[in-house]
UniProtKB/TrEMBL annotation:
<protein>
    <submittedName>
        <fullName>Kinesin-domain-containing protein</fullName>
    </submittedName>
</protein>
Amino acid sequence: MSSGHKVKIAARLRPPLPQELNDDGVRIVPNEDGLSAICVTNPRDPSQIFKFPFSSCYGSASKQEDIFERDVRPLIDVVYSGVTVTIFAYGVTSSGKTHTMQGTKAEPGVIPRVVDALFEAKAQKPQYETTITASYMEIYKDKVYDLLVARETAPKLPVRENGEGMVFVASLSTEPVASAEDFHSIFTTANKRRSVGSTRLNNASSRSHAVLTMELKMVDSQENKTLTGKINLVDLAGSENNKMTGNDRDRMAESSAINKSLSVLGQVVHALNRGDSRIPYRNSKLTRILQDALGGSSVGLLICNLAPGVKFRQDTLNTLNFAVRTKDVENKPVINERENRPAPKQHFSALAPPAPKLVPLQSAPPVAGSSRPSLVITRPTAGPSRVPRISAMGTAPYPNAERRKESGIGIVQHRNSLDKAITQQDIDERISKAVEAEVAKRLEVRLEELERQRVQDEEARRAREQTEISHDPTPEKQPDLQSLPSGLLTPLLKRHQDLDNELRRRLQELERKYERGKAEAESAIGLSPASRKKTGRAYVALARSHSEKGDLQIALDLYRKAESYVPDNVKLKERIIEIEWSVAQGKEFKPSPKRPKRSKGKRRNAKGKTGTASRASSNAPEERRGNETDDDETVENILEPIAEAGFGVEVTNSPRKQAGADVEAAASTPRKLRSGKRLANGSDDDAPSAPVKRGKT
Ligand SMILES: Nc1ncnc2c1ncn2[C@@H]1O[C@H](COP(=O)(O)OP(=O)(O)OP(=O)(O)O)[C@@H](O)[C@H]1O
């Protein structure tokens, strides 16, 4: 039996803004069991509808209070039981993340409501002497800044890891908070420092990810123990399509950092779901900082913000796909508890790391609507721990933060204010801290060296390969698939077995090459973009051949593998959803028929861009792509070169003449929706349903 706690998902659709049309393409549909699902019309084929069942779905008329009372308030008791909770808002730009997290004076969002609830609960727990502190940071262009200090005096802060594997932001200030009112004034000031900019889609668009942490220290003098609970409230920046946002140069740099970090977030979730031994947390500051929330020791709630309107439709599907994956991520919540009683003096070097002890779950209150773990692990920290317990989001306040505390803004006693009588134990602790800081620093330097070395090795390897390719004229050397002229490999189409073998060989070769790329072997990030695409293409083609043979599970695995190389490919995501559904339902899967082979000139004509195909244009993929829509671009990137090489094409969007395939696919699925019955696999934690026909519900 699993002792983990799955990340809970809540999806919220914002109402259309005054200038937006409501086409009803995203809507909430109640399920028979009292739960609900988000239904999204396929932007490429309005006759198809994707269904995403979640335990909490909020429609456009929902109120801030609804989401707070149902999904957030139950977590307040979890924080008071000494557990870390992380709530993050995720969605495309302008989908309502900041509105949900911060809200307005008239409609306060999750953050102000959480703080009010923390103080209400504090008043009801007289057995504890509770102190509450806040820290607030933003991750802007992959750099971390303290939002509680003026920007002029806020250098970028390093992210570190202590000996217990706890990631923290060094030198992040913490501010004691005496009351909810005190918090609101601190928060309002801090928010003015957040990087916000205007885009075509949102005139107050967050250009950074913001992480607010409220930490509670609950000293129980009767029981001689201290519990530390924490809640991280994360307002992520939204993914962006620069063509829609109309971003200028400055905004583009921000946008690319935002998109990259969100893409790494997706890869982390993927890797966790696959059970990889290496999770690429280190590939962005965002994922490092959220490490504890994804696959770590905290309880997680992901609020998925969705925007109505057809222009956001593809992003909405991407957001929901991310949510579907995230709900399979399992955390192992931990109660942070330590004894108050001073331990006998001992030199830090003589102390062994404390062994975790299992504590029955009853000590933690239940989380509404979630599968609770049967056990949680407590970290006993009796006496001076070998490694000082450092807040996951950092301690060591800035001098000006310290000043704020002294100036009496907060009346709460801070842990560091025990300076009056320094004991031998205090001294040992300080030495221990200094040693650990030094070790952390050296480790970081060493890691940077290793990373530099890896990059150098990778470059040298690529250079070697380049030289080999240009000097090796032997005919048996395998040609690059991308460079093959169209039609050259057409005969392979007729020989599927050969095709399989060929692709397998190619994949093995690529993987062998990649293996040589040292320790990062499991991460597609370690490959150049070209190699990633190439590998992705090869997996797609192999997957297709398996799906045609009816080996759907194998095909699905291969498509998923392809996705880790080209995580942004939208059609690939759709294909995975379709096959997942077919596998879950035990239904036959019919891929859309292959696109008929056309001359390049015809292709251009079909798009209506140019009259006749010039030789220059047919040989210039960049130029071709420039004329295509975004969707085409992502598909062409992975699929087209294979098609040109004669390996077949994945076309999800069936043109009119392929309607037969759509009708057939739809005919096998819509009745379930029509009758209002849940799909066989339609439990709360199910994957989305396959497309079903509209108009029959
Ligand atoms: N539930 C809602 N009810 C009313 N208005 C909303 C709601 N959600 C969002 N809005 C409005 O939509 C606009 C965009 O919302 P918001 O700024 O919160 O989006 P965002 O996802 O944080 O965007 P970005 O990623 O660009 O920062 C704002 O004008 C906001 O007031």
